[in-house]
Amino acid sequence: MKEFWKTIKVYVAPYKKYVAGSVVMNILSAVFNVFSFSLLIPILQILFNVQEKTYEFIPWDNVAAFNDIANNIYYYIGQWIALSGESRVLLTLCLVFCAIVLVKTACYFGAAAVMVPIRTGIVKDMRMEIYDKILSLPLAFFSQERKGDIIARISGDVQEVETSITSTIEMFIKNPILVIIYMAVLFTMSWQLTLFTLVFAPIMIGIMSVVGRHLKAQSLEAQKYWSDTMSQVEETLGGLRIVKAFLAEKKMSSRFDGITEAMRAKNNRVAIRQSSAHPVSEFLGSVMIAIVLWFGGTLILGDSAVIDAPSFMSYMAILYSVIQPIKDFSRAAYGIPKGLASMERINVILEARNNIKEPEHPRKIEGFNEEIRFDHVDFWYEQGGKQILHDVCLTIPKGKNIAIVGASGAGKSTLVDLIPRFYDPTSGSISIDGIDLREASTHDIRALMGNVNQDPILFNDTIFNNIAFGVDNATQEQVEAAARIANAHDFIVEKEHGYQTCIGDRGTLLSGGQRQRISIARAILKNPPILILDEATASLDTESERLVQDAIDKLMHNRTTISIAHRLSTVKKADEIIVMNEGRIVERGRHDELIARNGYYKKLYEMQAL
Predict the structure, then answer these.
(1) What whole-number distance in Å separates Cα of residue 205 and Cα of residue 281?
(2) Reported pTM
(3) Residues 6 or more apart whose Cβ sits within 8 Å of residue 100
(4) β-bridge pairing 576-581 and 427-432
């Protein structure tokens, strides 16, 4: 329960005014409920003609307890009966009873209504916190997590928290108020009967908590199966072309059936255990009522009756109202552990450690004027794993076109990912104009850079918004100018909606060359002094490659360019070629110089020429 209260404290704090409103409404609801049950006593006395006691008026200055107020009310009712007759008084009392119940139910509705913004607000806040955390986490975190699992946590797990935890907030506000007020009235009516009742209430609650103790572990397993399901759906959607091409529909369907069947079996066990909450609590509550009826009957039928029959019936009505909050607590013994299981999975994201630390007092980088320097850089993706970069020393002067080449797994992408500080070097340092990147803010560092990747990353939005993605308040003229430089304007205006054309998920409604030119236009609009390219023409046909390469040449003009080259024929014009092998720089120089050395670069070049 410590985790539950921690969750409630964190997420309910912004909605204190709604909590206060709920407290007020619940108090009023409980008070009017007590008045409605108190009216049953004179009504029953009139119906069964059992009025034996004569009530004496107590001056209001001397009224000190609930019994004194009830005494005066019954006194006035007795006087009223004497003047107007029992039938008229009975009708009036019934109408007053209906009016009080109407006010009570209105307060009850008000208490429930003010809880709605709390529940919906907590879910929205939780999803925003997870999403913002996802945006802030380093890329290394996502290399260890499945996208489907993350989607499951922000969708299914948050939904489970809403169902199992936020829905109980109202109970924890309302039920203590009801129990305190009702128990105070019950003690006033008959302290002997109430003490006897309190002996059995903890027994019922204890049984319910024991039954629900194992639900949390089962719920964790069920949510894991949900994550597996979402992961396979995400993988299937991403690889649907391959699934169909290799006739693997039945194989994928069989895998999905296995996962969903395991989830169904686990959910069955969880649901059956959870659904037992109501009948078990109903049975235990009925047993408690039966025991109280027996004991109360002995108090009425005894020689020295301490409570009359109408008062006892009113007492039982109020007691039954106490039983319901206790049943709610028992059902929470099932729901809360299930929600906490989901909260544990959510906390894997929320409590994930970000290794990219922002400096407390960052040094300002206002532009790029001199050079990027790698000084004896080593890098491991994780402690104890394989070393990716070994003692890399490299200087990239402003305005130069630097190409990085090497076999797959040589460390090219890792080296480039260190520049925008997607990762920090394990040892050594990287600096821009003499400022260590770890001493500057990531915002300032990345503001200097633009990226064009081999697989262009576009969003399910309009062409305009994709080009203007990295620039606030970009105008139509600026976007069109960037598109013209990127050789994209002509095909854009041929679309039915021009720049307002939606391009589908990851730009699937465009061809490969069109997607690449959109991503180049995005980089042109940002106008960064440092450009990072990852072989932007590698997967294009000849005509698209010509258009894209022309756009890249325009983009590279007067910029410092660092490009990962998979095809060595594209790096002949580079000012310097960095040749990497197994995480080390093994050669460097211009194309002709490296060919003349007859070393590793020439070997790679000749292998591609075959």
Answers:
(1) 9
(2) 0.70
(3) 32, 35, 36, 39
(4) unpaired
